[in-house]
Amino acid sequence: MENTSSDIRQLNEKIHQASAFVDLLSMELGKVIVGQKYMVERLLIGLLAQGHVLLEGVPGLAKTLSIKSLSSAINAKFSRIQFTPDLLPADVVGTMIYNQQKNEFVVRRGPIFANFILADEINRAPAKVQSALLEAMQERQITIGDSTFKLDDPFLVLATQNPIEQEGTYTLPEAQVDRFMLKVVIGYPTREEERHIIRQNLNPEASSPIRPIIQPSDIIEARKLVREVYMDEKIEKYIIDIVFATRNPEEYKLQKLKPLISYGGSPRASINLALAAKAYAFMKRRGYVIPEDVRSICFDVMRHRVGLTYEAEAENVTSENILSEILNAVEVP
Amino acid sequence: MYKQQVIRRIFLCFFIVLLLPISLLAQQKIEAVAGADTTSIRIGEQVKVQLRATIPAAQFNKPAFRILFPVLSDSLEHFEVIARSAVDTTTQQDLKILRQTFTVTSFDSGHWEFPPMKVEVYGATDASSFDTLTTYPLGIDVNTVAVDTTKAFKPIKTVQTVPWNIWDYWMYIAGGAAVVLLALGLWLYFRKRPKKVPEVKLPLVTPYDLARQQLKALKEEKLWQQGDIKQYYTRLTDILRAYFEHQFGIAALEQTSEELLQNIKPVTKLNQQRDKLRALLAIADLAKFAKLQPTADEHEDCMQKAEEILEWTRPKEEPANASANEKPAV
After folding, report:
1. What confidence tens digit (pLDDT) does each residue in B43-59 have?
2. Annotation: CATH topology of B27-143
3. Which of B146, B168, B201, B245 is most buried, by the most CB atoms less than 10 A from its CB?
4. Is the minimum CB–CB distance between B254 and chain A shorter than 8 Å?
5. ipTM for the complex?
6. What is the pTM assigned to this prediction?
7. Helices A20-30 + A5-18 axis angle, to 10
8. Does the beta-carbon distance from B290 to A232 stay under 8 Å?
């Protein structure tokens, strides 16, 4: 159905009211998380756009604290799975256990049965465990024995990867990485933020605990609204141009990128870019998407979806470099 | 009578049969013969000694057959070998004749014998056979120059001038002539070459003029009056972005509104119009991406803002252009 001007105005007002919780949530999280606004914002985008987040950063950057605080603020269940080489799929999804008293097998649910999952160092576990988790992420349901269980909603997986220790790891295949809506690369806090972190940790009593701001049901409602955010066909074309530029850079006068890209973004990239842009617009309390929204989340949606050739790796060209070139070449509507 | 004729014929046949193998044998014989073109030379004169070997052609079909001519050293007793020709082969009926010529001289006066030469033949009868054919020695008289001792000694002749001949210098003359012709050709070429017509420089449309023209065209198209508001604002912002790109080198077409407002900061003149630009872009973004229907006043206002930005940032005219535009003083 075609949106009219008045529809969009109403939607804009509706979203303006409904998205008020985003600022409250950010403020609440800010009580315990110093800095890392970028990461928190991306977590919320993942939450609102119903996509999972792959986080890359060195240890100690408040990844666990962020997702734990987020689950507390939403009054949701949180669980953390430390991926190790000896982890089994059953350790993640659960298994059947024999109950001697009842003389029957009962299902013991794994840690995946929560709203927020922190899959720490996902690349340390073998492929079968990764697959079990990624399948659950995609299907949002688990089958143990003969029983199938729907996972709780909202369901957000935050997987982490350590970029510096690659020995003895099982790198996620491209097809699996593609299932993450966002791949967020986080860096160290600033000097000022680091000072706040020290003070906060030396005096933990001073910081107040996280209070539940909203309920999981509010997130589900917000998700519906996110999908309603108006996206003009000009924005759709812009998204398609960006994704196509990763596939056929020569069509956008970027011949020099052709030998550096082994494969471009999949249609899933376009879908996720559109969804994330809508979620970003929602967070900015707008009922419509503007090119800024697309550009803001473009790197996080696309960086793990652009394959690099050996030539690019030899020349230390990153997917971020390629995306920058593309964004600087594709005309903004 | 008849009986005598019969006997004569029998004898004739007998002779023919008797002589046949002899002639065949003669044909199969390998010979080596040496000969000189003269037997008497003056001291230092040259004599050609030819060594000739005659071999039945059939011998060459034998796999092991090989014939080796002698290798003469440069100095023989009383003779000097000056040159050796290659072995030349000719065919004559069933024979092959191999020839090699040696140019020989001598500086010793007297009668000397050119030594016999040996030709080695391998595999003539069977694979392991070896024969040596030796030529006869050649007697050559080497005579001194006869001096008339009765006449007086003559003085040594002075250096004589070689008579001048034009053909001794033809290469230099031809080279010189070529250089003169080349120089003449080049001179003619450069003299007759059409002179470069100075390019007529068409007046370039400046980004400012282009933007003005486009804004004027946009006004005349009356897009918002026809309800095509989205297209109106798309065109309006595109004109401004293209102007910023060409005039100030800001990649405005590839930047979002926020980025553009950030990136105009270094351009002071443009940055002074930041608020106007922000207001214009905000309305344009709403019209383009949120289906906002601004009022007629807002449309006019946006166009006015665009024109004001253009006027404010209008580059000063070049002095050359300015003087060209001025009317000549009477």
Report:
1. 999 999 999 999 988 88
2. Immunoglobulin-like (2.60.40)
3. B245
4. yes
5. 0.76
6. 0.64
7. 30
8. yes
